[in-house]
Here is the input.
Amino acid sequence: MHAYVFQAALLCKQCGESVKEYLAAQGKAPTNPDDEYTYDSDEYPKGPYDDGGGEADCPQHCDQCRTFLGNPLTGDGGNYVRDAIADNNGNPAVLDEWREFYDYLPYRGDDGLLYLSP
Here is the structure.
């Protein structure tokens, strides 16, 4: 999924586009939004960027609507997801979403063995 960066937050494409429209209506859009070197992401959203904003140590979600952005994970991020799912630590719907998206990660079963899908 595409993501925008705005005021130190990640936004899904829909929320990012909404913020851009709002700022443009307020006369706060940069002269050339395509030239990201001319403005700061604190002033106007930058992006959209592929892969949910890029590799991170945990799954990324939109900071406005909480939509899962589908970003790639670092090794630590893979461990985080694997442990959260194995320990059932979190919102079950979110864990299911992570499990489906990161289906390449091995998970610890009730028997202590690692499986590619629970």
